[in-house]
Amino acid sequence: NELRIQSEWLFQSAVARASTELRSNAEYAGEEWKMTAESLGQTSDAVAKILVEPVDGKTNQRRVAITVLYPPDNTERATVSRSVTISL
């Protein structure tokens, strides 16, 4: 349960990161955002895979697919995978 809750928070952080990046660079295509345990104040690292795609017919919007793996190298991990639409 703790891993799932932390993964949800990390997903929200990844949405905020993608939104900030898109507002400063409309060509931002995404990234694999690696977060260290130390930066999270946790005992495990995390990874957020962010993929940005255009929205057909909407030049001011991008579809952002995010997958969070926490912890990424453990078979017993929490995974959150969702898409959101961000307006520029």
Indicate the proportion of strand residues: 35-45%
Estimate the global geometry from the Cα principal axes: elongated
List the secondary-structure elements in sequence, H or E: HEHEEE
Oligomer: single chain
Mean pLDDT: 95
Distance between the termini: 34 Å
Number of helices: 2
Q: Residue ranges: pLDDT <50 for 5 or more in a row? A: none
**Major beta sheet, specifics?**
4 strands, antiparallel
Number of strands: 4
Radius of gyration, taken over Cα atoms and rounded to an integer in Å: 14 Å
Structural class: alpha+beta
Helix content: 25-40%
Strand order in the sheet with the most strands: 1-2-3-4
What does this structure look like?
The protein has about 90 residues and is an alpha+beta fold. The protein has helices at about 1-25, 35-40; strands at about 30-35, 45-55, 60-70, 80-85. The N and C termini lie far apart (about 35 Å). About 15% of the residues are buried. The mean pLDDT is about 95.
Quick recap:
The chain contains 2 helices and 4 strands. It is α+β, with helices and mostly antiparallel strands and 88 residues long.
Keywords:
single chain; 88 residues; 4-stranded antiparallel beta sheet; 2 helices; 4 strands; elongated
Secondary structure layout:
Layout lengths: L1 H23 L5 E6 L1 H4 L5 E10 L2 E13 L7 E10 L1
Antiparallel strand pairs: 1-2, 2-3, 3-4
